[in-house]
Amino acid sequence: MDEGISRLPERQLLEHRDFIGLDYPALYMCKPKRGVKRDESKETYKLPHRLIEKKRRDRINECIAQLKDLLPEHLKLTTLGHLEKAVVLELTLKHLKALTALTEQQHQKIIALQNGERSMKSPVQADLDAFHSGFQTCAKEVLQYLSRFESWTPREQRCAQLLGHLHSISSQFLPGPQLL
């Protein structure tokens, strides 16, 4: 034996008999030693890697499913059939941008009111805007109901006719931006 090793206390010397019957699964992840065949080490590496990748994909899919559930119905109706993952992400971004813009607009109104500034719009215009907003919300709810419970699709002629009718009614009262 080497003199440096023989000077070590006996307790620090580990022999083969100390390891018999012990299983060290964490050691399987280590790089193989010279005596181990490469194919065996690849297989022991591939299995945990595959499991890790599967769990990662499952987490991503679960998050996308949750985003899909959180999307408003009127955004889900803009596409036909199954919502792909990329479409769900795009619609989520669109919705978040709209919410951010709305929040910023409301924040500006709050600041203006706190500073005592009067609204630039006349009371009549503010009432018309509120009516238009309510009309849009109602029209969206009608379309959601028809698609969900009456199986209407946005591409059907009767759906297009209803949208046209709602646009014409909206334009009679409000000469402003189009409905929906």
UniProtKB/TrEMBL annotation:
PROSITE patterns membership: BHLH, ORANGE
Any one GO molecular-function label of the UniProt entry: DNA binding
Orange domain: residues covered: 131-166
Keywords: Biological rhythms, DNA-binding, Isopeptide bond, Nucleus, Repressor, Transcription, Transcription regulation, Ubl conjugation
Domain BHLH: 44-99
GO BP: regulation of DNA-templated transcription; rhythmic process
Pfam families found in the cross-reference section: Hairy_orange, HLH
Gene3D superfamilies recorded: 6.10.250.980, Helix-loop-helix DNA-binding domain (4.10.280.10)
Gene Ontology CC terms: cytoplasm; nucleus
Places the protein is found: Cytoplasm; Nucleus
PANTHER family linked: BASIC HELIX-LOOP-HELIX TRANSCRIPTION FACTOR, HES-RELATED
Protein name: BHE41 protein
Gene name of the encoded protein: Bhlhe41
